[in-house]
Amino acid sequence: MSVQTERTDPARASDVRKTGAPPPRDVVSRGRRAGGRSAPYLLLLPALLATAVLLGWPLVKNGILSFQNLNPRQLILHLTEWNGIDNYKEVLGSSDFWKVAGRSVVFTAANVVLIMVLGTLIGLLLARLARRMRLLLLLGLVLAWAMPVIAATTVYQWLFAQRFGVINWVLDKLGWHSMADHNWLATQFSTFSVVTLLIVWQSIPFVAINLYAASTTIPKELYEAASLDGAGAWKSFSSVTFPFLRPFLWATTFLEVIWVFKSFAQLFAMNQGGPNRLTETLPVYAFVEGVGNQHFGMGAAISFLTILILLALTAYYLRTVIKQEEDEL
Q1: Residue 24: DSSP 8-state
Q2: How far is Cα 90 from Cα 224, in angstroms, rounded to an integer?
Q3: Over the stretch 78-99, which tens digit does the pLDDT of each residue have?
Q4: In whole angstroms, what is the distance from residue 50 CA to residue 89 CA?
Q5: How far is CA 203 from the centre of its chain?
Q6: Contact 123/210 with Cβ under 8 angstroms?
Q7: What is the pTM of this model?
Q8: CB atoms within 10 A of CB 211
Q9: How many CA within 13 A on the CB side of residue 269?
Q10: Most buried of 130, 151, 270, 319 (most Cβ within 10 A)?
Q11: Cα distance between residue 281 and residue 264, in whole Å
Q12: Is 247 left (phi over 0), alpha (psi -120 to 50) or beta?
């Protein structure tokens, strides 16, 4: 009985070996580089989609509304009346808008300066306190930071109330008897003072904690070298601390400018932009003109102009950051 052995074709065997062989290294490296380049964009895709839906679509709707004449009549009759750029012409041609815009800039600048100075000092203090005192101060900062805006505004209304306010009672007991029945919301300056105190109190924790966290990244060897060179407290701050904290200070200042500029709840809940609309900033002005006076197209135009101002500030910030990075390179 003969056994036939199957002969293997050498060409076919070589084809099988080629088919089962791993791909060349350059193909694998190109695939990995392509996957590595697309991975960050894939990770950012959910956040970009959420931003587009939750922020982009309302912004588009607001922009469309700013080109319409929308009053109670149009709402009741379900009419859409387009008036082009008439809302923007009316807003930009109004002296009230420019007064409110200038007031908003001054209000924002005063708040941001106080926030950054006091927040930086407290942040530097946190880095020098003992552990227990640091934890106690951090607890107080976090509690102030976590308080809701309306709740904090209500507390300040109670503190500065005309008849039963704690501030008036304390001042009366200290000898200022004329302050026993003082109305803190009667004038523009005093109302802005109370609101500024509230906003600064709410914003200091963010700046202080941010600067304290940044200060922990500064190598201690630099302070030791500065002390060996005879540098005092101010020289150590200007030559060691400030150069390291400058990027954090710049970013925090920019965030505070945006946060203070768009603040609405504190001003409106405190006195609704009064007295006589003298404490209205652009967000409050847009709400009063739009919802209060029921001219919704006008309010949309004012709010859209406010957004454009914030976008201009953002563009200036990004340009400055890019320029600093190029100078460092």
Answers
A1: P
A2: 62
A3: 778 888 898 899 999 988 999 9
A4: 34
A5: 11
A6: yes
A7: 0.79
A8: 23
A9: 18
A10: 270
A11: 8
A12: alpha
